Amino acid sequence: MPDIDLGITLANLGKLLALDGDPRAEAVLTEAVELLTAAGPEAAAHLAEARGNLAAYHQLHGDPAVARSIYRELRDAAAGMAPSAAVLRNFAALEQEEGRSPSRRMLLELAHDARPQAGGEPDDPDVTFRTLIEQASEEDRLGNLARALELALRAADVARARPRRSPLRTTVALVATARYGLDVPDEHLDAALTAAADDPETTPELLRSLRTSIGQRCRHQGRLTRALAYARAAAAHLAPATATEEQLNTFDLLALVHHALDERDQAEQLYRAVITRRRELADPNRVAMTDSLFSLGMLCLETGRLGEAAALVREQLDIEDAHLVEVFAASSEVQRLAYARTLLGRLDAFVVVLLAATGFEPGAELLELLANAVLRRKAVVAEAVARDRAMLSNGPEPGIAAVATELRTVRHELRRLALDDEPLRPHPDRHVHDLRARQGRLEMLLADRLSHPGPGTGPNPDTDTDLGGTPAALPTWQAVTAALPPGTALVEYYRAELGDEAAVLSLVFTPGSPPQLFTHGTADTLDQGVRQWREFLRHQDTGERALGLELHRVLIRRIDAALTGVDRLLISPDGSLNLLPFAALPSPDGSRLLDTFEIGFLTTGRDLLRGRYGPRPAPPVVFADIDYEAGGTALDGGPFAPLPETGAEGRWIADHISAELYTGPDASTSRLRTARSPLVLHLATHGYALAEPLRPTDARRPDPGPAPSPPGAPPPDPARTPDPAHTPGPAVDPLLCTGLALAGANTFLAGQEPADGLGPGVLTASDVYDLDLLGTELVVLSACVTGLGSYHPGEGVFGLRRTFEIAGARSVLVSVWDVPSEPTVQLMCEFYRALRRGASRTAALRRAQQAVRRRFPEPVAWAPFALFGDPGPLPW
Questions:
Q1: H-helix segments, 263-379
Q2: What gap in Å lies between CA 271 and CA 251, rounded to an integer?
């Protein structure tokens, strides 16, 4: 018998022995693995199956470390050796037993792409149904409700497809879809629950779980009486002191309903019993534990027990911090965003209760907890993605590089489809949905691989404090204040969602002092004021000063007490404040904020702790005077008008900072992609920010170009630019909606193929992911609306600035409206002149703005630019 046939026979025998618990299975499976390994590539699928069965044997017989080692090798193997869906599910079960829920979620997702067992039957529908319901529950726990509903609906389809319908499965699917947001009438749920109770397959534990789920739905809908009835029915004959982890979910619900009904004694008794029991369990659900600690902490705040509340919230935040690292290490970007939003929602609730319970004056202990929480929760996804990107740029091992390459290919295909002539809203092609699912799974796999890197991969953990990996120490307000230069204040604005409303508060940090808390009114009022004031500034409206003074009073004068001795502000904005030109805020004495402070911006105060890593920077690179019709034929103009004045800007800058200058057709996306970590990257061109991607043959004019109008005249009305609060629908990637025009942009938009070597003429924010800017100190986007995009709570604006920072840039200069031509050229030259003389980045921008202001006094000419990131001088 050939080795491959004998190997397959032994593998099948070993599997049967393992299922019977026969100890001979290990030896038989080991021999099968040796034979199939020797048989070469032809036996790859059978070898993977045999190794999976050997891992399952060790898993079932008390050697999980060996099992995990085999499973990981299989999961990380090349395509021909990749494990089957059954093997991945077995690995997921092991991860669940070991308390690694995020890893389990990733493995179950990867199983969707996996092949069936070698020579085996299709998956059992019962297994598929159960797996989908479990996945949905996990996604719900981690905040990804949209994905939970999608999985529950798929489970419902599986249940309906069975030849003989099971009342139990039908009810489980119906309750799950209702729990995750589908509108299901109460009578349908009640009827389904009655049918399930009569089904002999239904155990008391399943019935309890179903009642709890319906009760949770009712609580979220505010129907507390109905929720209480379901919770009591589910908890009948159970006691918290002996409950399993799953049963504790029922008591969580019961406590929350009592709390909402203002029955605090009953709620507190249950909270304490549940927490006590979870401490006794060997592996409690950490998400549920943080929920319990938070709920009891809020009850203590409400009843004036501030010290106990602080202890409970501190424990909750510590568990969340550790769990955040674990979740991010096996999640896609969408999943990271969903989980981060869940944590922010809890932080918002803490803010509401804290301020109400303390009369807006929390004591030092609670204020320090709040400060640390805000510092650790804002923009955590951007930082995690940036860390992944940095690790990839440092020569990853071949397995990681292969995953990254496939992910890049999928992203490029999605971009191609989004920028095709047919609009994507949503794209009718199922191919797009499948590509997005594949992108998510590859991101999960890449995150997991990067969290277990080989030697020499990635940034230095001793200097990198981001929360997306395994930092040496979590950021604290003490570390942030210690990093502030003398005379500098960090103003960390935070938008707290309060149900249907939102409020804006700030934490002000100065060297050697504890944080101070201030409130700034409702977000709606501020949003309207910011939007109106921007329009007043752009059109030089006479109402500009009065509204600007009110914004100054609300945002700056309220924090005056914390700004004694301060001459530089580092502002971490949130919400619409990302679009506010702070430098132009007027003061009662007739001055502007620019006259009092240097002003810089940070995505989060944690940016002050960001270490330097990456290669030694290459010489600066400048793109200017770009030929937007390069490679085109018979073009009758196009959306992007020539910008000849940027030629003088580019030549002057290149001369003064010894930069490589690219103009005309050489200023292409292909050329830009060859730049490796330039010290400075300066792009003088058109920018755009739209509600949907800019596609070939699109008739919109994304940027008519800054006209050489009379000094101080307002730029054209950007009717194309989305409202600052706009967020595209779920089918639209916001990073495809903002971008820059490079060589051949009009050619591309006319539907003509780009000439060889040009590449597409439009660089979207998504394309910036592919740039290698690790080690780049400064990116200057000398273009219109480069600071606009789509706002995502807690993460800021999704646009060019975000992706340039993720690509590695330590600081980015962007604009928040259309910029007039002549003042912009002067501002850029003055900015670099000051930088070359050793000024800090914030001081250089201030000097440049003051110089332009002397010639063009209206803020429309000098105020739109904002510097985000490292405020210090450039290391020329």
A1: 264-280, 286-302, 306-328, 333-358, 364-377
A2: 8
Alpha-carbon distance of 95 to 256, in angstroms, equals 30
* Buried b / exposed e along 162-196 (16+ C-beta atoms within 10 A): eeeebbbbbbbbbbbbbbbeeebeeeebeebbebb
Q: H helices within 712-793, ranges in order? A: 745-749
Structure tokens at 625: 């005077």
Q: 793 to each of 499, 578, 675, 736, 796, how far by Cα in Å?
A: 14, 12, 33, 19, 6
* CA–CA separation, 780 and 840 (whole Å): 15
Q: How far is CA 326 from CA 92, 288, 321, 470, in A?
A: 15, 15, 9, 9
Alpha helices in 142-285 (DSSP H): 145-161, 167-179, 186-198, 204-220, 224-235, 245-260, 264-280
Specify whether the CB–CB gap between 870 and 721 falls below 8 A: no
- Of 211, 123, 136, 200, nearest to 168 by C-alpha is 200
Q: Number of C-alpha atoms within 13 angstroms, CB side, residue 184? A: 23
pLDDT tens digits, one per residue of 183-200? 999 999 999 999 999 999
Instruction: Evaluate the CA torsion angle 708, 714, 719, 721 in order and state its sign.
Output: positive
Handedness of CA 870, 871, 872, 876 (dihedral sign): positive
Q: What does the alpha-carbon distance between residue 56 and residue 53 come to, in Å, rounded to a whole number?
A: 5
Tell me the CA end-to-end span of the chain in Å, nearest whole number: 71
What tens digit of pLDDT does each residue of 359-399 get? 989 999 999 999 999 999 999 999 999 999 888 877 778 88
Read off φ and ψ for residue 447, nearest 5 degrees. Answer: -60, -40
Strand 501-509 versus strand 488-498 pairing type: antiparallel
Q: Is 322 helix (H, G, I), strand (E, B) or coil?
A: helix
Tell me: the pLDDT tens digits for 562-611?
999 999 999 999 999 999 999 999 999 999 999 999 999 999 999 999 88
Chain centroid, CA 383 distance in Å: 8
Instruction: List C-alpha distances in Å: 249 to 21, 144, 565.
Output: 34, 19, 52
What pairs with residue 763 in β-bridges?
Answer: 740
Q: What is the pLDDT of residue 74?
A: 83
The answer to whether 851 and 824 have CB atoms below 8 angstroms apart is no
CA dist 820 and 210 (Å) reads 62
How far from 476 is each of 339, 352, 373, 605, 870, CA to CA, in Å?
Answer: 21, 22, 9, 10, 19
Which residues, at least 6 apart from 86, have a Cβ–Cβ distance to it below 8 Å?
A: 52, 117, 120, 123
Q: What is the pLDDT of residues 633-663, one digit of tens each?
A: 867 778 899 999 999 999 999 999 999 999 9
CB atoms within 10 A of CB 580: 25
Q: Are strands 598-601 and 660-664 parallel, antiparallel or unpaired?
A: unpaired
Rounded distance, CA 371 to CA 490, Å?
Answer: 12
Select from 561, 534, 379, 343 the least CA-distant residue to 468: 379
Strand partners, 501: 498
What count of Cα atoms within 13 Å lies in the side-chain half-sphere of residue 732? 18
| Interior angle at CA 799, CA 798 and CA 801, nearest 5 | 110
Residues 6+ apart with CB under 8 A from 739: 687, 688, 694, 762, 763, 764, 765, 767, 800
Own/partner pairs for 535-539, CB < 8 Å, 24+ apart?
A: 537/581, 537/584, 537/858, 537/859, 537/860, 537/863, 538/714, 538/715, 538/717, 538/817, 538/818, 538/860, 539/714
Paired tokens of 96: 């669940």
pLDDT band at residue 424, thresholds of 50, 70 and 90? very low
Say how far residue 671 (Cα) sits from the centre of its chain: 29
